[in-house]
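Illustration 12: GIY-YIG nuclease family protein.
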Amino acid sequence: MQKSYVYFLTNKNNTVIYIGVTSNLLKRVYEHKTKIRKGFTYRYNCNKLVYYEEFSDINQAISREKQLKAGNRKRKEDVINKQNPNWDDLSEGWLFYFD
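Figure caption equivalent — predicted structure in token form:
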């Protein structure tokens, strides 16, 4: 079974939080950082990965994404702060090479 992920991105000033779901976190973060897709994260410069969770089932990931999106800003900040209190870019140093 393929792994799935729920992830949070923010901008350099941590003023916007984007929540997404993917089955390929490395590729998806690359797409956000290189602004391949012109959407919310492109518009608001969200390219810093500050949080992610791994799931063994895409349906679990989608369910968790909906739960997280339903929360207010404070709840989202609490989720990030629990694992990444400095809001560091967790993808720092990742190599973005694809076949």
